[in-house]
Predict the 3D structure of the following.
Amino acid sequence: MRKRIYFILLIFGIILFSVSYVASGIVGSYIITEENMEEHFVFTDTPASNSEVSDIDKFLYSFEVSIYPYVAVFSLVFIIIITLVFLKRKR
């Protein structure tokens, strides 16, 4: 019975992580529509075209404007905790 509960919690965490990670990538891609997109750059050289924007900058931008990256990090920590608790109980 406990294995089933851990498995359900693990599947829930994986689904939540997947959806929020994809959503944060979509939100991060909106950096190219910003008028002042150069202000958000950390790893991209300033005179950049839309195709030269770093993926890390897109991800950092999504941290600024949405909650999806925070949910992704929370669900990843949740997955790790559930896995560690399951492995500890299994012994």
Residues 10 and 37 are 38 Å apart (CA to CA).
